[in-house]
Amino acid sequence: YVIKDNRDSYLYAIKLVSRLLRNEGCQALIADDSMISRAVMRQMLEKQLFTVFEAQDGEQALNMLNAKPEIKLLLTDYAMPTMDGFELVKAVRNSRGRDDLAIIGLSGAGSHGLSAKFIKYGANDFLTKPFMNEEFHCRVMQTMDQLNLIADIKEYAHRDFLTGLYNRRYFCQHMDKVLKNKPDQFTLALLDLDHFKAINDEYGHLGGDKVLSQAAELLNSSFNHCLVARVGGEEFAVLMPGNDLSVAKDSCQDFRERFANTQFMIQDQALHCTLSVGIARCDKATLSDVMRAADNALYQAKEAQRNCVMV
Ligand code: GH3
Ligand code: MG
Ligand code: MG
Ligand code: MG
């Protein structure tokens, strides 16, 4: 890249480089029946650090997109054999939203009204051929910036700020999908720290926060094939694959033991903490039914002696 004119500043260059670096490893697909067009666009996209794939017609492009969900950018021509650009965009949008795959429609000059139609069918932007390299660069970068921004916002919306775990909102959305599609393949565990109030009373709220962060790290590293979320103040949920309650109980027992043996650190002070666990199969009709079942088991664990697992 040549940075010229009045934009020739250090800050501009740094910003451009960091935007370009976000494209690194990002996959783009060019759907165009013209070999020359594909070659021109490939060269520019590679300069923008994309990994580039090519399709010669709409159908081939659709098959590639279905096979490769990692593709994040589609540049599609309008006039192509087997399936034109509009049909391709319509078909792709059935399964891939604007926040998941960016699409830029392309067509030759004199194609009046095509840009509006492309966008109506779900393209994020449009380019008229032949285009200036600078316009191509700007539109691709702007489209990718929007995609990245949406990904960042989603990440913020789905995560708990203190622990970095998924939050209750994400957990509930995910559980709704699980209960709708494969309710008999998962088990839910609710974990609640024992006498946490006493830790806050002794070490202050900030001290309590430190314990919560360390507890979350331990959960995340112990249940690495599960969805782990913070669903309340000192309450966590683990969605485990499989519906065998005794298997789930064994993993939770192992974790309960590891947790009880962990030294939590608040500055240079070491302390111990325990937790109680309630387990339920996800074979109920609604999320509140599953939660109620796990919560009842958790209540029994608290009633029993705490520091134990109940089904
Ligand atoms: P039990 O064994 O019955 O669960 O006792 P407990 O003291 O853990 O239960 P209780 O529900 O009475 O208290 C939970 C405490 O967790 C009270 C609340 O102040 C604290 N808490 C909730 N959210 C946070 C947080 O984000 N940070 C800190 N430090 N404390 C929190
Ligand atoms: Mg064409
Ligand atoms: Mg508690
Ligand atoms: Mg609680």
UniProtKB/TrEMBL annotation:
One Gene Ontology CC term in the entry: plasma membrane
Enzymatic reactions: 2 GTP = 3',3'-c-di-GMP + 2 diphosphate
Superkingdom: Bacteria
Any GO MF annotation of the entry: diguanylate cyclase activity
GO terms (BP aspect): cell adhesion involved in single-species biofilm formation; negative regulation of bacterial-type flagellum-dependent cell motility; phosphorelay signal transduction system
Keyword Cell membrane included in the entry's annotation: no
Sites bearing 4-aspartylphosphate, chain numbering: 77
Cofactor: Mg(2+)
Sorted UniProt keywords: Phosphoprotein
EC number per UniProt: 2.7.7.65
EC main group: transferase
Domain annotation GGDEF: ranges: 184-311
Domain Response regulatory: 27-144
The keyword Translocase appears for this protein: no
The protein, known as: diguanylate cyclase
Organism this protein belongs to: Pseudoalteromonas rubra
